[in-house]
Amino acid sequence: MTDEFKTISATSEGYYTEKRSKFLAFAHHVENHDEIKLILAGYRKKYYDARHVCYAYMLGAERADFRANDDGEPSSTAGKPILGQINSNELTDILIVVVRYYGGVNLGTSGLIVAYREAAADALAHAKMELRQVEEEVSYTFTYPQMNDVMRIVKDMNPRIISQTYDNTCVIRMAIRKSEAQQLRDRLAKLL
């Protein structure tokens, strides 16, 4: 398993039109289901007059938690093409919502698939992509006299410090790239 994944850093928008139907696409960086529910509720409220609010999301570095929703469109004509764009760009921690305003002319299943795919692709074309690391948390408890030895290892391995408490018993919580976590634990264990 790799300890890197690709995502987007900020919300981006896309647009597609076909036979007077308008497809507004929005790509969001998300990290959990609650965030997704909140964003979807916001779009359903904001675009209450739209015919469909379709979406797809992918969560987690393993890319195992995903969903595609057609929101009343014929089966697999909306959510799947949106999810296909997420997969073809190898993205995760992302939600793409496509809002459709019906233009009065039926597009047919192939027309819908193209429209949702292109709207999602346009939103991703305007997105800023970034590579992130999968981090693992390491917590270490030590005595005050060990401070210099611990800090030498921290300086050498450069983990992100989450919290630190310095008292009679000191505790430091760090996040480090998953592939380096065991090495950090091993080096700290040698100090005991």
Automatic annotation (TrEMBL):
Superkingdom of the organism of origin: Bacteria
Pfam family, one: Impact_N
Domain spans labelled Impact N-terminal: 19-124
InterPro entries: EFG_III/V, Impact, Impact_N, Impact_N_sf, Ribosomal_Su5_D2-typ_SF, UPF0029_Impact_CS
Transmembrane spans: none
Xref: Gene3D superfamilies: 3.30.70.240, Impact, N-terminal domain (3.30.230.30)
Family: Belongs to the IMPACT family.
Protein name: YigZ family protein
Organism name: Xylanibacter brevis
